[in-house]
Structure to design on (581 residues):
């Protein structure tokens, strides 16, 4: 299996910003997951090891997309348009809330990223900024990859470890499957391996 | 049963069956379930989203029951972390709120099953709180506690409720229901009342004119069928009495208890449970996203998955925080209003019985509560 969409034609055209801004939560979620599934056929990804963003080859560049509570969709879409216009486009985009993220605002931002950036292959949900619950919900809004350290054994989320973002492989698979996706592990050589029950 | 057929039943106002509920839980697309639950939520309440100004008093955590999912209870007086408040200490908490001009309308009181406290500890607790603020609504004692007092003090459930009511009890909280399935109760909470006994306490309270809430603990060892069956038993009692106001799904928190090896419910499981509850419990008016337990982000999202209530400002919640909840122990009205508005909903301040206290321009966010209250600041006096 290829690690990126097979053809440029598989990618839908970006939705007009005014149309996106007018959509309610469920309509946005439906459109974003449809766009995600058109690219990845219902698969959700995780990776056990990942190079730091800065060291990643140009083709694997992940762009963080900081957003704040109170910004409107039009402002976000304008910034996303700049990211989408880059040549080559980034490999992935990772919405990154600034400050304490509210749930719905964050999910809406994920959907906007997916719909406004059809040339960006992946929308990543970062467990360290969102927490595992909200990161999983993002898969209903266009995310396709879980971004978290995958460890053999995770320390309990207690005390100083309360915000431990690490997941075991089994937890990552459970989160993706619970969101209705077919879990796929991205292997070191770039190939993908589906995790069957 | 296909999703389309279930959707048609929901739109026609037909009650869903056990099979329908299981099919909803197993449907691969949680967004579809959420959208359907949101239809029902908006049909019942539009955008209105309720909250109240309340405080919690957990007067003792000494508890004879050794429920495996519980991080709050201590089996004996003198065990590490065991505490029992004196009346004055409990009253002091309300006096502090009154002095701070926090316009709370409700006190939520839930305790352990303390083997050494006399019955008048509880009646005096209620009566004393009422003396300080006669208008305060006392939502107190789970059905598990009421049943325990009936056995321990050799009274009928109706007598216990009557005496507590005479002392100031206004309604019952919904805790202690866990999962009604005997198979599950035997494994996780064998020494508390059965599901039938829990339902019977609420039936009795409703017949005596009290309103109550109901809950379901999900995410331990129960099956999907057992969750849906639990909802159906609540629905049947509601058909009989009409006394339930709110259903509150309670996510299992695995930290600091005997079930800590189990994974916590995931975010989509939380949302799906809220949505399924809204769809199954057509006759219970409200579904509450209890932010203390669910976390603020998930609770806010649940407002689009069937929930129409965020609970209250709370203060000094201990039961879930001892189980690892990372939420603050208090939110100001201003914060709650902001969360609701950010969700695209309309905040409505209510009292315990869902009478509107304020909405629209009349909604006053008030000064924020202090956020530095932590359980380690509490000085607890052992009275038994």
């Amino acid at each position: 299996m290829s690690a990126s969409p097979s053809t440029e034609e598989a990618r839908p055209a970006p939705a007009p910003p005014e149309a996106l801004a007018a959509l309610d939560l469920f309509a946005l979620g439906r459109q974003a997951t449809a766009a995600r599934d058109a690219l990845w056929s219902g698969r959700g990804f995780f990776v056990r090891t990942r190079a730091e963003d800065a060291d990643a080859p140009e083709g694997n560049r992940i762009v963080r997309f900081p957003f704040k509570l109170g910004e409107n969709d039009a402002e976000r879409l304008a910034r996303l348009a700049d990211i989408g216009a880059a040549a080559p486009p980034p490999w992935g985009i990772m919405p990154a809330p600034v400050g304490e993220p509210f749930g719905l605002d964050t999910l809406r931002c994920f959907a906007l990223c997916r719909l406004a950036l059809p040339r960006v292959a992946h929308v990543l949900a970062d467990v360290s900024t969102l927490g595992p619950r909200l990161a999983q919900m993002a898969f209903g809004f266009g995310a396709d990859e879980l971004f978290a350290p995958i460890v053999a054994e995770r320390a309990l989320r207690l005390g100083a470890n309360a915000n431990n973002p690490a997941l075991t492989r089994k937890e990552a698979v459970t989160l993706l499957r619970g969101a209705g996706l077919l879990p796929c592990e991205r292997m070191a050589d770039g190939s993908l391996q589906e995790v069957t029950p | 049963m296909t999703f389309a057929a279930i959707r048609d039943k929901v739109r026609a106002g037909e009650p869903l069956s056990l099979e329908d509920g299981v099919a909803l839980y197993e449907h691969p697309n949680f967004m579809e379930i959420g959208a359907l639950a949101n239809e029902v939520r908006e049909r019942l309440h539009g955008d209105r989203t309720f909250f109240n100004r309340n405080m919690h008093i957990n007067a003792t955590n000494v508890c004879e029951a050794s429920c495996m999912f519980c991080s709050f209870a201590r089996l004996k007086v003198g065990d590490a972390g065991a505490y029992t408040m004196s009346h004055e200490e409990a009253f002091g908490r309300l006096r502090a709120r009154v002095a701070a001009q926090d316009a709370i309308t409700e006190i939520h009181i839930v305790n352990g099953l303390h083997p050494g406290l006399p019955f008048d500890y509880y009646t005096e607790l209620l009566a004393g709180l009422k003396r300080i603020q006669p208008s305060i609504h006392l939502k107190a004692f789970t059905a598990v506690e009421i049943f325990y007092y009936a056995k321990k003090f050799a009274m009928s459930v109706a007598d216990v409720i009557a005496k507590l009511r005479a002392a100031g009890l206004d309604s019952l909280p919904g805790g202690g229901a866990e999962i009604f399935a005997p198979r599950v109760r035997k494994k996780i909470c064998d020494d508390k009342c059965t599901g039938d006994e829990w339902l019977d306490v609420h039936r009795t309270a409703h017949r005596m004119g009290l309103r109550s809430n109901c809950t379901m603990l999900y995410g331990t060892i129960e099956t999907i069928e057992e969750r849906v069956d639990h909802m159906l038993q609540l629905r049947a009692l509601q058909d009989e009495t009409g006394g339930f106001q709110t259903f509150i799904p309670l996510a299992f928190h695995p930290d600091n208890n005997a079930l800590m090896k189990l994974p916590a419910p995931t975010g989509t499981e939380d949302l799906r449970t809220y949505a399924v509850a809204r769809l199954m419990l057509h006759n219970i008016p409200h579904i509450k996203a209890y932010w203390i337990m669910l976390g603020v982000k998930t609770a806010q999202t649940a407002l689009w998955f069937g929930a129409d209530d965020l609970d209250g400002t709370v203060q000094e919640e201990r039961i879930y925080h001892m189980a690892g909840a990372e939420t603050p122990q208090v939110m100001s009205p201003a914060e709650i209003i902001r969360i609701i508005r950010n969700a695209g909903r309309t905040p409505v301040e209510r009292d315990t019985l869902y009478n509107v206290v304020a909405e629209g321009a009349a909604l006053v966010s008030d000064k924020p509560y202090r956020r530095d209250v932590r359980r380690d600041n509490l000085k607890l006096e052992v009275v038994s």
In short: Confidence is low (pLDDT under 50) at residues 5-9, 51-55 of chain A. Residues 81 and 117 of chain A are 8 Å apart (CA to CA). The beta strands of chain A are 43-47, 62-67, 92-97, 122-126, 145-147, 150-151, 167-168, 182-186, 192-194. Chain A has one domain: 30-146+162-194.
